[in-house]
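User: Predict the full complex structure for these chains.
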Amino acid sequence: MINSILRFGLIFILLVLFQILLFNNIQFSGYVNPYVYILFILLLPVETPAALTLFLSFGIGIIIDLYSGSAGMHAFASTLAGFVRPFVLRSVSPRDGYEPGAQPSMLSYGFRWFFLYSAVITLIHHTALFFIETFSVIDFFSTFLRTGLSAAFSLTFIMIIEFYRKLTAQKSN
Amino acid sequence: MRNLLNFLERYSNLIIFLLLESVAFYLITSRSYYHNTKAVNGMKWLTHGVETGFGNVKGYFHLKTVNENLANENTMLRNTVGRLLENDSSSFFPVCDTVYQQTYLYTSARLTGNSVNKQYNFFTINRGTKSGLTPDMAVIADGSAAGVISGCSDNFSIVMSLINLDFRLSARIKSNGYFGSLAWDGKDYRVAILSDIPQHVAVNIGDTIETTGYSAIFPEGIAIGVVSGYEKPGSDFYTIKVLLKTDFRKLHYVDVVANKRKLEFIELENEIQ
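Assistant: Here is the predicted structure of the two-chain assembly.
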């Protein structure tokens, strides 16, 4: 228990630092900004109580907000991501359900499963984020394009990080 | 009572979700992104250390361009001083009156935070009320328009960037003097839209767009960019695309412009209206 709190505390801090120092500075053509910090929400153990997931998602969102000066937008989007996570987990669950203490990762459930799972949540998160940012549906297609491109980049980075984690885990075994 | 407790237990997650979302939503709407700069400044102490450290490191990568720009500006200023000295050599100005007829004061500042990929972009500079900055002062970079200060703390100011959907600037075509309103459309960070230029005016690609000085914020004749394309929509006015001279992604040092006669100007305008 203590071990996993420390583990996720470390992941939390690392992802926040990565997001602020690295990914917030990656910008392609003014349209695209990857938001990789949601990997934290994706990685929480399957059995995490829904309320705790919500508070943690809100927490990481508000910290990203503080550092990018965006007042609640990330908090809003990531709380939504935390809210839909249990439903997504249930709908993509393997045939014989999750083992006790299971953690959603590429290592335990494979590339396809993880891609599907993270794609759904990333898309929901980015859509909420970009539409709350423009606060209108006027430039619908431009916002839609921004959402799609950014989601693609975020997903790419998430998959790379996850792939790297899988490799190192396999090596140490 | 029992039913109520059951209800609460059953929907506790939904209730927490809605509660957290409304907190986030409240933050979004009440700040309306920047107006309450007090809150931004309150949070600045948290982020200041990281941003300054990171800004220091990033600054080194751009020293070459910054130096080149400074050298160019020095040459230009030296030329101007030379010209002025020649002009004034025959007249006797009292030496103590160094700010004779000077309307605008300039001070330089360095960026400590910046964004270009949002719809409402702002940047932070390392000077505030202690250096005499107040909201609504113009910010220019390398002699071209960059933004307007929207809030100050003791040592920092938050500047509404030209690439912000709420930014409006009175601008004119340098060659013929027709003026219109410049705003950003939220798409490309290099391109802003100039509207309200009537269609009988000749507009050419490559025309320089500059500030008018009608708002008492920007001095007159500060370059904004060049015309990169135009359309004639169904109305009587052009929609002109302006390629901005300031590259907001490479912004590192800026000048803040204080208008000494702004108060006088505003008081007179209010008196008339």
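The mean pLDDT of chain B is 81.
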